[in-house]
Design goal:
Blueprint (H helix, E strand, L loop, with lengths): L20 H8 L2 H11 L11 H10 L6 E6 L8 H8 L1 H15 L3 E6 L7 H17 L5 E6 L9 H8 L23 E5 H13 L1 H5 L9 E8 L5 E6 L4 H8 L4 E6 L5 E4 L7 E2 L9 E2 L4 E6 L4 H15 L5 H18 L7 H15 L3 H16 L1 H4 L2
Helix pairs in contact: 1-5, 2-3, 5-8, 11-12, 11-14, 12-13, 12-14, 13-14
This protein binds flavin mononucleotide and iron/sulfur cluster (SF4).
The site of iron/sulfur cluster has 14 residues, from helix 12 and helix 14.
């Protein structure tokens, strides 16, 4: 790495020296001790929403129920995100280990990895790894078993409640919240659902300690993050970097010298134009006017050869296709936005019509039921406002 501000970290992919050492040692510690370690670390969910992991586990642990479940969200459907696939391929045992630590704390006996339908090719390998892992749990007399559930390729099924509906054989549609999954999740029982990366960090925090983890990153964004870097970059791939990185440093490292924009957080995220690189960092504070933008890992780099109209059109096609259609603002809004930008581009509507479309995304943010419809505003407003000249006739 050229810049000292962009620090490479090696927590997630570092191989274990001894097979199950970290897990076995963690399982010997008291639940209170381990839960405090995870809470203390400040770890927040790496799937996008950024909910504090330790708190989620605590809520599920406090529930009194006949059954509880742990689910690993490996649906990885956000455009430009491909890090969970790599984590599952390189260090599956760490993913299963994180699920097992969570199971001990909340009192679950069953766990599931919800695997993205397009990652079906990973099934034979993961089942093989899982058999060894489940056998190890039997050997140490720990009553927890993990299975894999294959998704069917719907983006919305990455949303936790839609994911559980699909596991229950229902339509993959988001549920009303509350109740949250920690209270009524899979089959109505308390369930912790975490992203692949979150589960590995939980386990690794038990190895390195919350103090060492907290020393990385910033107050709001502790630790490090695995990024999927794609687009106009000479070095696409997966990189684990310390949190708090600035977009300017990121672009200097990964861009091709001609970067005009970077999309942080996939189609559901924000587009940052060159003039704002220096004032933007990557982290949890979030928001269009915030100086720190969250991402589940997707970092898509665009150079000056790219049409931002085409980029936005592509996102809107995606949202229109993937909306589950359950609520009107999202189902109709996604279509109207796509048609609207086409009309402005063709000269059928005046430039000012873009302002009405931005207003429509604000309404969608307030009235859509789940994160899909709510997040369309992020890419829409940030592209239209920063690249307005590319949207018009
Ligand atoms: C439309 C939509 C798609 C999502 N897709 C994923 C996904 O593929 N993987 C993921 O971990 N979280 C995804 N999420 C977020 C999950 O609902 C949930 O917040 C996350 O799995 C919780 O795990 P974490 O706390 O470890 O981040 C998605 C959310 C929405 C609204
Ligand atoms: S916001 Fe969209 S994806 Fe979410 S529930 Fe409503 S229609 Fe379905």
């Amino acid at each position: 790495m050229k810049d000292k501000h962009l620090k490479r970290v090696d927590i997630i992919f570092k191989p274990h020296s001894v097979k199950y050492e970290v897990l076995d040692n963690t399982l010997k510690r008291s639940n209170e001790d381990v839960l405090n370690e995870v809470i203390e670390s400040g770890l927040k969910g790496r799937g996008g929403a950024g909910f504090p992991t330790g708190l989620k586990w605590k809520f599920a642990a406090e529930q009194k129920a006949e059954k509880k479940f742990v689910i690993c969200n490996a649906d990885e459907g956000e455009p430009g995100t491909f890090k969970d696939r790599e984590i599952l391929t390189k260090v599956p045992r760490k993913v299963f280990g994180g699920m097992t630590v969570c199971a001990k704390i909340i009192g679950a006996k069953r766990g599931f990895v919800y695997l993205r339908g397009e990652y079906k090719y990973l099934l034979p390998f993961l089942n093989q790894e899982l058999e060894k892992f489940n056998n190890h749990l039997k050997e140490i007399n720990f009553d927890f078993k993990i299975d894999i559930f294959l998704g069917s390729g719907a983006y919305v099924c990455g949303e936790e409640s839609a994911l559980m509906n699909s596991m229950e054989g229902k339509r993959g549609e988001p549920r009303n919240k509350p109740p949250f999954p920690t209270v009524a999740g899979l089959d109505g029982f308390p369930t912790v659902i975490n992203n692949v990366e979150t589960l590995v960090y939980s386990l690794m925090i038990c190895r390195i300690g919350s103090k060492a983890f907290k020393e990385l990153g910033t107050r709001d964004s502790r630790g490090s993050k695995v990024f999927s870097v794609s687009g106009d970059t000479p070095i696409p791939g997966i990189y684990e970097l310390e949190y708090g990185l600035s977009v300017k440093d990121f672009v200097e490292e990964f861009g091709d010298g001609d970067t005009k924009a970077i999309q942080i957080g996939g189609a559901a995220g924000f587009c940052v134009p060159r003039k704002k690189f220096g004032q933007t960092t990557v982290g949890y504070q979030g928001g269009l006017n915030g100086d720190s933008l969250p991402t589940g890992g997707s970092m898509m780099i665009f150079n000056s050869s790219r049409s931002m109209y085409n980029v936005l059109h592509n996102y809107l096609d995606f949202f229109e296709e993937e909306s589950c259609g359950q609520c009107t603002p999202c189902r109709v809004g996604c279509q109207q936005l796509r048609k609207g930008i086409e009309a402005v581009k063709n000269g059928e509507k005046p430039e000012e019509y873009l302002n009405q479309l931005v207003k429509l995304t604000e309404t969608m943010k307030l009235t859509s039921k789940c994160g899909l419809g709510q997040s369309v505003a992020n890419s829409f407003a940030s592209i239209v406002e920063n690249f307005r000249e590319e949207m018009i006739y």
